[in-house]
Amino acid sequence: MTDTVAAPRPTIAVIGGDGIGPEVVAEGVKVLKAAAGADAFEYVAYDLGAERWQRTGEVLPDSVLAELAGVDAIILGAVGAAPGSTAIPSGLLERGLLLKLRFAFDHYVNLRPSKLYPGVVTPLSDAVVARGPIDFTVVREGTEGLYAGVGGSLARGTSAEVANEVSVNTARGVERVVRDAFERAMRRRKKVTLVHKHNVLVNAGGLWNRIFTEIAAQYPDVTTDYLHVDATMIMLVQDPQRFDVIVTDNLFGDIITDLAAAVTGGIGLAASANINPTGAFPSMFEPVHGSAPDIAGQGIADPTATISSMALLLDHLGRPAEAAAIERAVDADVAQRGTAARSTSQIGDAIAARVAG
Amino acid sequence: MTDTVAAPRPTIAVIGGDGIGPEVVAEGVKVLKAAAGADAFEYVAYDLGAERWQRTGEVLPDSVLAELAGVDAIILGAVGAAPGSTAIPSGLLERGLLLKLRFAFDHYVNLRPSKLYPGVVTPLSDAVVARGPIDFTVVREGTEGLYAGVGGSLARGTSAEVANEVSVNTARGVERVVRDAFERAMRRRKKVTLVHKHNVLVNAGGLWNRIFTEIAAQYPDVTTDYLHVDATMIMLVQDPQRFDVIVTDNLFGDIITDLAAAVTGGIGLAASANINPTGAFPSMFEPVHGSAPDIAGQGIADPTATISSMALLLDHLGRPAEAAAIERAVDADVAQRGTAARSTSQIGDAIAARVAG
Ligand SMILES: CC(C)[C@H](C(=O)O)[C@@H](O)C(=O)O
Ligand SMILES: CC(C)[C@H](C(=O)O)[C@@H](O)C(=O)O
Predict the structure, then answer these.
(1) Is B18 a residue of the active site?
(2) Is the pTM of this model over 0.90?
(3) Where does the record place the Isopropylmalate dehydrogenase-like domain (chains A, B) (predicted)?
(4) Answer CATH for B122-151+163-264 from 3.30.505.10, 1.10.287.3510, 2.60.40.10, 3.40.718.10
């Protein structure tokens, strides 16, 4: 018998967060274990979110941020109080935790796939659905634009107030995310649509256009087109089949992906990944939906979006077969969903069983 | 016999513009004459748009702007080249003509009603449509925000480029449009939804929130709520019935109203008014759709959106009965539309006949 030193297991930070966050994350981890093995990863839970802030006044202490920088991936449930809540200042947790992590860990690819699973209820008409399969992905820039936190108010609180928000766009920032979109398109149906509003936002739009055109020239196999963000709205409900990869800025991406989620069956199903493709910092995986305080604690939240985000996590960690197993299990589960309500953990159990079986 | 001096007739400036613009405007004027009488207004045609720019290099000469300032209302078809066209710099006409007029004439209420007419094909499912009538209006701020033209680029054209766009929001600008929205709600179903993204855009969002709350207190009969712009996307396709009046900023309004148009049967039907409620400058009436160069010159564009905009024009000029006559005629025409294609002028004729008859 020889002494063996076990290879260190990758560490995954688990931030349940607020509202339904912890409930859906528990199911995500359940399915992750079913796919990768119970001992594949070390899981470290982090207690962050509204409850901690109310108890301690801390959102994301520097020491915790430093610790998180060393993990291999982060799972995030949801953060944030209900809009209109007065207990927590608007956006405090979103900016202090979620956006802070996206920016600190340079998650410049905010990846949001949208696929209409067979059998899923969509708000789109039969005629639109009959046009063909809906399967596209949005590559949303994650570290610039109007999310930069640049802006301010003059004469705040008075009738003379002027409040500004600045969208900051850099050539480097646009270049790296557009390139990522083209790389993804090469592994898909080889089409990239740039969405912007360059007829009005001439500076930012001009930059996006220029870089997009430059990179497109390097991918002669990829078809490209351009849509204004307003026209994109129309296409997403009239002809979503036209999209393969959409690349766009941070705010347009935020808006587009909620509509994309809605037309493909709702944000209960929409997965997302905040990726740092360089590996310099851990990437973060989270459902598109929020903390949904209205249904928290009842065990009725749909964990599917979080579970699908686990497939993105496995893919990112170089485990495509396990990722595919989760995707197949989700496909199969979703396809046979009737109207009978299942609890959060029943859905997690069912998908975990399919992954294992 | 006494000498009578005819009261001067109100003057309406007619800017057909580009692409399908002149075609749909001709039908709008036809129906306007049917409703108000052939001699009710004096019509003055203005030759502005891509063709003039290509011929003369002029977009909107100061002398023309000064003349337009003196008319009673403006009808605008559409301006702008096809996206991706290289003949005309991107946005030149949009900014130099359309936005120039909105800003010069202080059109701070960009009004965009959305109504799903019975019988109209919508991309929404039967289940969503069955929830009830869809009938809401968006009050889009028209003179501030990211449309202010504030921004710029550093190191333009290089790999070090930084391109900024600034959203400028003033208390005065927000106050006047929010108040207008509440006034409209009082004449409708008494509900106003503020749409913004105040969890991220804290400065602008904070200002909008504060003013909205202040004004809401003055309208105790009006129910209010707030939605983030991303969540609004979901509601517009899952539950558009929840909306009565939406008030929002310039860019969010641009995005929302294209989606609103799409879910209520397409931009072929979506009317809009750029209103200066003070009367200091003429208001401007235009379809939401663009110049659609791909179908221009074929007589197949749907003029309904322009015709409905004429109802908004008559309303604005204090002729509600004539406005209602156009609305009824459009309702009736749209309700009996089958799949048989009619030409642009056939649709105009049919609606004009209903107005007259
Ligand atoms: C919670 C909020 C800050 C966040 C965003 O705007 O990015 C969310 O809407 C999302 O899309 O992940
Ligand atoms: C053409 C363009 C400048 C314009 C806008 O962005 O306002 C259009 O999309 C609209 O909605 O009227």
Answers:
(1) no
(2) yes
(3) 11-351
(4) 3.40.718.10
